[in-house]
Amino acid sequence: MNAVIARLVLKRLGIMLLSLLIVAFAVFFATELLPGDVAQILLGQAATPEAVAGLRTAMHLDEPAFLRFLHWLFGLMSGDLGRSYANDREVADLISGRLANSLELAFVTTLFSVPIALTLGITSAMFRGSFYDRMVSVFTVTVISIPEFMVATLAVIIFAVYLRWLPALSVASEVHGIGELLRIYAMPVITLAFVVSAQMIRMTRAAVIDTLNTAYVEMALLKGASRRRIVLRHALPNALGPIVNAMALSLSYLLGGVIIVETIFNYPGVAKLMVDAVSTRDLPLIQSCAMIFCVSYLLLILIADVVAIMANPRLRNQ
Amino acid sequence: MGNVIEIRDLHVTAKTDSGRVVEIIRGVDLDVADGEIVALIGESGSGKTTIALTLLGYARPGCSIVGGSVTVDGEDTVAISEAERRSLRGTRVAYVPQSAAAAFNPSKTIMDQVVEVAQIHDLMPMDAARKKAVELFRALALPEPETIGARYPHQVSGGQLQRLSAAMALIGDPKVMVFDEPTTALDVTTQIEVLRAFKAVMRERGMAGIYVSHDLAVVAQIADRIVVLKGGEVQEVGATEAIVHRPSHSYTKALIGAFHPRARVPDPEAAADGPQPILKVSGVTAGYGGTGRDKMPKYVVLKNLDLTLERGRSLGVIGESGSGKSTLARVIAGLLPAAKGSIEMDGVRLGQATRDRSKEDLRKLQIVFQLADTALNPNKPVGAILARPLVFYHAMAGRERDAEVDRLLDMVRLPRGLKHRLPSELSGGQKQRVNFARALAARPELILCDEITSALDTVVAAAVLDLLDELQRELGLTYMFISHDLSTVEAICDRVAVMYQGEKVEEMPTSRMKSGPEHPYSKLLIASVPKLDTGWLDGLRDDPLMAAAMEGR
Fold it and tell me: How many domains does chain A have?
């Protein structure tokens, strides 16, 4: 069993490296295609052509793009993310603080949304067709169709402006005690939880209903099993594969896709960092962020696959 | 002796997809005495499974019990609450499903599922339950009874799973067992072991049972009484002997009539000018899973197979599932290119794959698949389905094509009005006729029939076979008829080839099937077909060949 999983993980890691290489290549040349010039932007409109040319040489911008790509790639392999073009600081330093913030937010949101999504998804599958099920469906479809900036803005209007319960901005630097921490995180977490759990609820419900229609579930019923037992012991283990995959997809969004939420709540995360980097053509920073998002996505999918295999004895005992 | 089951005036309704409510059980009465096994037989849609499930107080989604009473061991499963029904299930009434392969949860071990009844109803400590399960495994003649429980369902065979599902039902010592076509999905050779195990256990424990089946011969082996159902109503009830030998109702007579195939009379004309080979398969090896460096497939299904089909005759191909029967048809049709060997038609070598064959080659050789449901395009009316090959092979158009469609429908005895209907609006037998008419549209010389009557009810299948026979005489067709049902093959074929593990082990005239197969596997296969005789299963014990074969399993 362990051998199977080890083989899978190794194979996946290999493919992951390849994907990363392709992503790095694509991101690098996509940023190359962006209009504008780093040296020009750094020096401002008034810079003389000579100054711009000098800076370009100093930053190795006059070298062929492919060569710069290789430079950066070798740097990455030796653990050097490079220096930011915009402010000449180590990219690693710039990112580390922001990444910690983003991970914190993602972690709290996951902690919050996964149990809620599972409970709602499973219970609405159990009581399929009931009023409760329909309410959950209406809720999830509504949340999926409302854009997140709308949810975030509404949350700010209600909780910060009218009720004045929560601060409108989430500045993590002035935290005194757990209560304040909760207050700061509340709104971004609520907004993100809304967005990611809707999809998870729908997928969980569909996967559980799928397994509830099988002959072995009918058999369990005819053995006298209670509804609770049927769902938790018979349906759920077989629905686990699709459910964790849906979760991985939803959660991968929490790192790179949350730019709107980070902007609205002025939350200092990686997504915001990356968008800022794009506006200054800060290539090393953009690339490092892209690589982080890519790695996190691939890792989540890998974890989901391993869980799915563990849950399925046919695959586990190959 | 009291009645352990009493069903009175049972009515069950079902809601169709279009929302219409139809009554599928219309006032059924049924009694089962202590220790008695009663069989419910009838074609699909006759309501036999629905009645069996009401004994557990259960109606499938969309169905509901609207009237009557079902008293099992003193409790009316219709009247009691859902909680009371739950406590009844598994302890007093237990269910053995049709397809054990589907009824076992793939992600739990067999032992967990077998002892689950004891766990749900808190009947005994888990250790005791496991011990009891092992005893049941032993009683049901399962291999390695000590350890088989630790395996997962996909790690044991279909016949073993079916017996394990009986162990799952027996663990709670129920008063009543409900068997729902428990051997239908099995090969005949496996069916025997399962039937024997069931019968021994039931007899030993003196339990009452309901045995649902469409196979009269199987039922004759195990039931004390037979109830014949049609359209949700009881047609005839009687002791097994009486029903089998002296049926009174016309439907029962038809069922039994379909079981006794008329002996095949060889066509004298074809015999006159001697056998003319139409198709010659030589040294064919084929399989699945991509080819390796040696050009051989990863999983070899057919091994070096030779076969000759004679013009105007029928060759039956029999064997258990996995023996390569269907693969053979696919290879001949070119759907699966052979890795080695040649296929000749009228002395001309055919391309291995369909794309290497000329339109004329394709026309001469048609294939008809088992499931008309999946073979016919659900979105096209019957007329369009039949017109397609007419356009493709014969470039027909307009009135000529319409006339030909009518003629084809006449040929397969379907009313012409059906051409405007969709396949989903036809019955199973009608669909299979359309499926066959489509092959006829090409005006083929050879038709490969892959289990085309297996999904049909006995009486309907018999009518389709008669039709095939007639068409052969009229059009001089050659058939290769694949089936796991030996009586079907007997009814329509001149010669029979027996396949076993991808090889043809024997070929013989159909007339010799009963009297003298030579290969041990053919002997076992042919001897395993249940006979319409109540003493057949018990009589097998004395047969040295069967006894030896049983030991080996």
Answer: 1
Q: What are the residues whose beta carbons fall under 8 Å from the beta carbon of B513, sequence distance 6 or more?
A: B486, B489, B490, B496, B526
pTM of the predicted structure, to 2 decimals: 0.78
Q: Domains of chain B by range and CATH? A: 3-257 (3.40.50.300), 311-338+353-518 (3.40.50.300)
Residue B72 phi/psi, 5° resolution? -120, 120
Nearest CA distance, B58 vs chain A (angstrom): 8
Bridge partners (DSSP) listed for residue B14? B22, B63
Judge whether B60 and B53 are in contact, CB under 8 Å. Answer: yes
| Tokens read off for A116 | 């809620």
Strand, coil or helix: what is B56?
Answer: coil
Considering the domain boundaries, does residue A70 fall inside one? no
In a domain, A15, yes or no: yes
Q: Rounded to an integer, what distance in angstroms lies between the CA atom of residue A133 and that of residue A111?
A: 24
- What span, in angstroms and rounded, lies between the C-alpha atoms of B133 and B119? 13
Distance CA B415, CA B431 (A): 13
Q: Residue B64's beta-bridge partner residues?
A: B13
SS (H, E, C) A144-168: HHCCHHHHHHHHHHHHHHHCCCCCC
Q: Which ipTM did the prediction report?
A: 0.77
DSSP B457: -
- Cβ atoms of residues A224 and B120 within 8 Å: yes
B72 chain-A contacts, CB cut-off 8 A: none
Q: Which of B91, B104, B155 sits opposite A224 (nearest CB)?
A: B91
Beta partners for B72?
B5, B75
Interface contact A228, partner B, CB < 8 A: no
> Does the residue A204 lie in any domain?
yes
- Residue B384 CA to residue B377 CA, distance in Å, equals 10
Does residue B41 sit in helix, strand or coil?
Answer: strand
Strands B21-33 and B37-41: unpaired
- Could you tell me which of A174, A264, A163, A247 has the C-alpha nearest to residue A204? A247
Please judge whether A237 and B90 are an interchain contact, meaning their C-beta atoms are less than 8 angstroms apart.
no
For B1-22, how does the pLDDT look when each residue is reduced to its tens digit (9 = 90+)? 578 899 999 999 988 777 788 8
Residue pair B527/B542 in contact (Cβ under 8 Å)? The answer is no
pLDDT tens-digit profile of B390-413? 999 999 888 999 999 999 999 888
Domain range enclosing A29: 2-35+81-316
